[in-house]
Specification:
Layout: H1 3-39, E1 42-48, E2 54-58, E3 67-72, H2 75-81, E4 87-93, E5 97-102, E6 113-119
């Protein structure tokens, strides 16, 4: 076997090892992702505020320890969130809903739209 054959054999082995390592990394990353999603299941949704200081958002996935992250998805909602009327989660009703209230008890115009992520830590 020539020196060139030996060198090409080595690089072939190295590439095979690299492919194996990449496959193992993908399996590990997918396992980590699955573990996170199992530990912290999440639900997403959207809502539009009614012209009321407190709005109840139905969602049967709510628990007493739910973490809810709200994101404005309209200009009116962004303006409200940047003002003293910003929203906060004022109540969690396990198995039923969560309530959002404006911080200043002001009444939004009824056109504010939001998206949310609900996470239930185990």
């Amino acid at each position: 076997m020539s020196m060139m054959d030996q060198m090409s054999g080595r690089s072939e082995i190295s590439f095979q090892n690299l492919e194996t390592q990449q496959r193992l990394m993908i399996v590990a990353i997918n396992g980590l992702r699955d573990a996170i999603l199992t530990t912290f299941p999440r639900v997403t949704g959207t809502f539009t505020l009614a012209a009321s200081a407190t709005n109840t958002i139905p969602n049967t996935s709510v628990t007493s320890t739910s973490i809810i992250i709200i994101m404005a998805t309209s200009a009116d909602a962004a303006i409200l969130m940047a003002s003293t009327g910003a929203l906060y989660i004022s109540a969690l009703t396990p198995g039923a809903s969560f309530a959002v209230t404006t911080a200043n008890a002001g009444v939004p115009p009824g056109t504010c739209t939001y998206s949310y992520i609900l996470v239930n830590p185990s």
